[in-house]
C-alpha cells in the first residue's frame, strides 16, 4: 500500500451515525490542518477544506465524500433494561443478529450486544419469521434501573467492529464511505491545483443526501465530483456477471449512473482519458439503484456538471464491508490526477 493505513483504520473504526458525525469531523479538521488554505464547518456539520488555485483561482471544483455511517437511534428502554432502536439509514435486518454495538450515552459509551435466541428454544414459526429492525433489542448487561438512568431516547447506537487486513482486502464496519473520505483527504495532501478545490466532508448522506444538498446551495462550484463506494457483487452468491456492477481489484470505478444521477458525459470521458494517460487501473460503473452525493450537487444551485469516482465494495451495509487495497490506491491516484489536470478550460456544457 502507498497510503496511510493507520489513518484509514482510525476513520473506519470511529463512530459517526447520520447527524452525529462529531468524531469524524474532528479527524477531518485535524487532517486539513496545514493542508487547506481555509477550513470551515456549516450549520449542518459539513466540513469544507479549500485549497486556492495557483493559476485560475476563480474556477472552483467541489469534491465530496460523506462522513456518516448507517446506525440507529434509541427509541425505547424496556423495564428490564433492553434497548429498542430506530434505523438511521438502510439496514438489512438479517445482518444484525449476534452483533456487538456501542450505545453513545450522554455520560459515555456503553458496550452492548444484539442478541439472538438460540435455536434450541425457537419454534418453527420463530425460525421462519422475517427479521425487522423493530424487533432488535440491545442488551447492555446492566439492570433495568441502571440502563434507564444512563440511556435516553435519542441516544445513538453504532456497530462495533475493528478494521482488519484480510489478504488483499481491508474490511470493517464503515468503509461506506470512510474509505472514500480517506481517499479525498489523501488527494488533498497530494494535489497542486491550478484551480480552487473545495474538499467537502458531508453529513447525513445515508438518510437522503441531505448534507450535500445543503452544501450545494452554499457552494457554487463550476464542477462537482463525488466519491462513494459502489457494489462489487463478484461473489458466489450472486452468480451472474451482469449483476456484479464492479469487480474488486480491477481499479477505481468511474460512474456513469446510479439510481440518483446520470453523470455528465464530458466529465466521465475526461476521467477515463486521464486514467488511460496516467496508466491508472479503472472500470466503468453502472449502478442500477442507490444514490450518492453526486446528485446532491446536481440538484441544487443550478445546473452543474457532475462526475463521480467510486471504490468497489463487497458486503455493503454490513460490518464486514470489504475493499481491495489496489482499488484504493487507484482511486487516490485518479482523483489526484483529475484535479491536478483541471485548468478550468475544459468545456463540460452539452
Note down, in words, how this protein is organized:
The protein has 350 residues and is α+β, with helices and mostly antiparallel strands. It has two domains: 5-69 and 173-340, Aminopeptidase (3-Layer(aba) Sandwich), CATH 3.40.630; 72-159, Beta Barrel (Elongation Factor Tu (Ef-tu), domain 3). Helices cover 26% and strands 29% of the residues. It has nine helices and 17 strands. It has helices at 5-13, 22-32, 124-128, 144-150, 175-190, 210-218, 265-277, 293-298, 325-340, and strands spanning 38-41, 47-51, 56-66, 71-77, 83-88, 99-105, 108-114, 138-139, 156-159, 164-166, 169-172, 195-202, 223-231, 252-257, 282-286, 306-313, 321-324. The chain has an eight-stranded mixed β-sheet. Helix 1 runs antiparallel to helix 5 (175-190) and helix 5 (175-190) crosses helix 9. The longest helix has 16 residues, at 175-190. The two termini are 39 Å apart.
Amino acid at each position: 500500500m502507498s497510503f496511510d493505513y493507520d489513518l484509514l483504520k482510525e476513520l473506519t473504526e470511529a463512530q459517526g451515525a447520520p447527524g452525529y458525525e462529531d468524531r469524524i469531523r474532528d479527524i477531518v479538521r485535524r487532517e486539513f490542518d496545514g493542508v487547506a488554505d481555509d477550513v470551515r464547518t456549516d450549520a449542518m456539520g459539513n466540513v469544507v477544506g479549500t485549497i486556492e488555485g495557483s493559476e485560475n483561482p476563480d474556477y472552483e471544483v467541489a469534491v465530496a465524500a460523506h462522513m456518516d455511517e448507517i446506525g440507529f437511534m434509541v427509541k425505547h428502554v424496556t423495564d428490564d433494561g433492553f434497548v429498542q432502536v430506530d434505523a438511521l439509514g438502510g439496514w438489512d435486518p438479517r445482518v444484525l443478529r449476534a452483533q456487538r454495538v456501542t450505545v453513545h450515552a450522554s455520560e459515555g459509551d456503553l458496550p452492548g450486544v444484539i442478541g439472538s435466541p438460540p435455536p434450541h428454544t425457537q419454534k418453527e414459526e420463530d425460525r421462519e419469521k422475517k427479521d425487522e429492525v423493530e424487533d432488535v433489542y440491545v442488551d447492555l448487561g446492566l439492570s433495568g434501573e441502571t440502563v434507564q438512568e444512563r440511556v435516553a431516547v435519542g441516544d445513538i447506537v453504532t456497530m462495533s467492529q475493528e478494521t482488519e487486513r484480510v489478504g488483499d482486502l481491508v474490511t470493517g464496519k464503515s468503509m461506506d464511505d470512510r474509505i472514500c473520505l480517506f481517499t479525498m483527504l489523501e488527494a488533498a495532501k497530494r494535489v497542486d491545483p491550478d484551480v480552487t478545490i473545495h474538499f467537502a466532508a458531508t453529513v447525513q448522506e445515508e438518510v437522503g443526501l441531505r448534507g450535500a444538498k445543503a452544501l450545494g446551495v452554499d457552494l457554487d462550484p463550476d464542477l462537482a465530483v463525488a466519491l462513494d463506494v459502489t457494489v462489487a457483487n463478484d461473489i458466489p452468491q450472486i452468480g451472474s456477471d451482469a449483476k456484479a456492477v464492479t469487480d474488486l481489484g480491477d481499479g477505481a470505478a468511474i460512474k456513469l449512473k446510479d439510481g440518483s444521477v446520470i453523470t455528465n458525459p464530458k466529465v466521465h470521458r475526461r476521467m477515463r482519458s486521464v486514467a488511460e494517460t496516467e496508466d491508472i487501473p479503472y472500470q466503468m460503473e453502472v449502478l442500477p439503484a442507490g444514490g450518492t452525493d453526486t446528485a446532491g450537487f446536481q440538484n441544487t444551485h443550478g445546473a452543474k456538471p457532475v462526475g463521480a469516482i467510486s471504490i468497489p465494495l463487497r458486503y455493503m451495509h454490513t460490518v464486514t464491508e470489504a475493499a481491495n487495497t489496489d482499488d484504493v490506491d487507484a482511486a487516490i491516484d485518479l482523483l489526484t490526477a483529475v484535479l491536478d489536470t483541471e485548468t478550468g478550460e475544459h468545456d463540460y456544457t452539452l
